[in-house]
Structures are given as C-alpha cells and as structure tokens.
Design goal:
Blueprint lengths: L9 H10 L3 E5 L3 H9 L4 E4 L3 H4 L11 H14 L4 E5 L9 H13 L5 E3 L7 H9 L4 E6 L5 H4 L9 H17 L3 E5 L3 H10 L4 E4 L7 E4 L1 H4 L17 H17 L23 H10 L15
Parallel strand pairs: 1-2, 1-8, 2-3, 3-4, 4-5, 5-6, 6-7, 7-8
Helix pairs in contact: 2-4, 5-6, 6-8, 8-9
The structure holds 3-methyl-2-oxobutanoic acid.
C-alpha cells in the first residue's frame, strides 16, 4: 500500500535527525521550479538569497532586498504542497537590531507565506535569533562560509581549515543552537568539522560543501541541474546537464520558426463553422449574448492541459 505523503514541518525534520534519515533541501525561486522540486519529494525548499546571483545576475547576494525575498518566497510558497518552505533573510534585514530582525521575519511569514526564516552568522546573531523565535517564527542558522560576509572574508573561501578557525565555526554552531534555531546550514567547511558539529548539536545540520556526515544536504537548484556549464566547484555534483539541453532546444525552435516548419496545423486553431439562421437553440443564443461576440473556447484549463 502506498503511504500518503505528509506536509513536512520542523517536527518532521527533527525526527529525521533522531532516526538518522538524511534531509534533502534544494533552493527554488519561482512557482514552476518549486512545483517540480516538490513533486520530486524534497523535504525542504529554501528561497535562498543566492537568487541575487543565479536569478538577478549579481556577483554576490548583497543587493537582494527584503521586497525581493518576499516576492520570490510568495511565488514558491504558492506552488509548494508538501515541502517545508524556508526564506532567507537578506543582508541588512536583521543586522541593525533584534527588533528589525523580528519585523523583517514577520514580513517573510505574513507576505511571503514562508514557514521559517534563515539567517547567517554565529555568536553575533544570537539576540536576533532569540527575538525571532520569541515571535513564534522558526529560525534556521547558517555558519561556516556566510556569503553575506563576502567582503569581510575577502571572497567566497572555505572556512574552518585551521584548528583555531575550526573551533570558531564550532563555537558559532553551538551558539546558534543554544539560541534556539531548529536547524543549521553548514557551508564550505571540512567534512570532519561538519561531523563534529552534527554530533554536538541536537538540531539537524544541513550541509553544502560540508561532506556526507551532516544530517542533510542542500544545493542550489540551477547548480545541481547543470544550468551553468562553466560553474564547476568541487562540492557540486550536477545531477543533470540541462544548460546545453535548453540551448539546443531553443536553437531547434529558432530553426523551425525560420524555416516555417513550426507551427504546423497541429499547433494552430481553426475558425468555427457558421450556423444556418434558426439553427441555434435558445439556451446557446442566451449564453452567447451574455459572453459577447467571438470564440469563447478556453485555451487551456488551470491544469494547463488542452
Ligand atoms: O542562498 C542560498 O541559496 C543558501 C544555500 C546555498 C544554503 O544559503
């Protein structure tokens, strides 16, 4: 018998860690991708501020605003039935004060329909984390490489490689766990450090570039689907290479349009046959006058099938 799929909540994620079942998370930024990721059965969808790079084309995530995040979160939330929906808090939306952090998080929940928020940083963020969780909003932490700190770090660099640096990342993870996060993203740290953190905290860790001993994994959707042929960091596995496939599909479309082999009659509409006077029954006549003149045939229904 097929088991019914259930909505994933923060309780489900906590249970996954207890039972040793790995958590799968991916990013999405729009309804179409969210629908596909949800259909694939991922546990969580992150509306990452990585959208600054992969959607907006910036070099980093710093330009992303709270309004951008609310907009993309609402697109994703609308199309997601089962996965847990987490929205990134963008740079500048939680750094000023715990009050500002709460106000921003509330907007992501109320206007974006997120179920939780994620913010970057360690010990320096515990006040913001406490304030947001006190407002009944679950917070996901994010330590190790924190891309919003790119200028302080001096680039996107692996973190925690020396003993001293590893201890700092470890202490940050303990601090955010203690402050009440329900999960922690570990980004670009050595795998043994990620394992040490995962064993030390009771909440699930979700790794990206942090090895296999985390309680779950996350990847940026366009990266794991291979949209960008040139992007080949060591941590990334491309589970498809859709970039070249998209280019050749669009080239084929262009060729067919230019040689007029698309559209054929199969993809075209025909006019309606005109009726002889007096043939129309009364009900049809009344309907037509209510709708006005012209063809009222639906192009597609809400399920998009013809
Ligand atoms: O913004 C993002 O997509 C992220 C993930 C890479 C964890 O923070």
């Amino acid at each position: 018998m097929k088991t019914q799929r259930r909505k994933i909540t923060i309780r489900t994620l906590a249970a996954r860690k207890r039972k040793g079942i790995p958590i799968t998370m991916v990013t999405a930024y729009d309804a179409t991708m969210a629908r596909l990721m949800d259909a694939a059965g991922v546990d969580a969808i992150l509306i990452g501020d990585s959208l600054g790079m992969v959607v907006q084309g910036h070099e980093h995530t710093l330009e992303v605003t709270l309004e951008h995040m609310i907009y993309h979160t609402s697109c994703v939330a609308r199309a997601t039935k089962f996965a847990h929906v987490v929205a990134d808090m963008p740079f500048g939306s939680y750094h000023v004060s715990p009050q500002q952090a709460v106000t921003s998080a509330i907007r992501l929940i109320k206007e974006g329909s997120a179920e939780a928020v994620k913010l970057e940083g360690g010990a320096e963020r515990v006040d913001a984390i406490r304030a947001i969780t006190e407002a009944q909003i679950p917070v996901m932490g994010h330590v190790g490489l924190t891309p919003q700190s790119v200028h302080r770090i001096g680039g996107f660099r692996i973190q925690g490689r020396t003993d001293k640096a590893a201890d700092r990342v470890f202490e940050d993870a303990l601090a955010v766990a203690e402050a009440g996060v329900y999960s922690i993203v570990l980004e670009s740290i050595p795998h043994d450090l990620a394992e040490r953190i995962s064993n030390a905290v009771s909440v699930p860790t979700i790794g990206i570039g942090a090895g296999s001993r985390c309680d779950g994994q996350v990847l940026v959707c366009y990266d794991m689907l291979g949209f960008d042929e040139a992007f080949e960091p060591r941590f990334l596995k491309k589970f498809a290479r859709l970039g070249p496939q998209i280019v050749s599909a669009v080239q084929a479309y262009g060729d067919e349009v230019r040689e007029r082999s698309f559209p054929t009659l199969e993809h075209s509409f025909e006019g309606l046959q005109s009726e002889k006077p007096g043939e129309k029954n009364q009900a049809e006549g009344a309907q037509e006058s209510a709708e006005g003149e012209g063809d009222q045939t639906a192009l597609y229904n809400s399920g998009k099938s013809a």
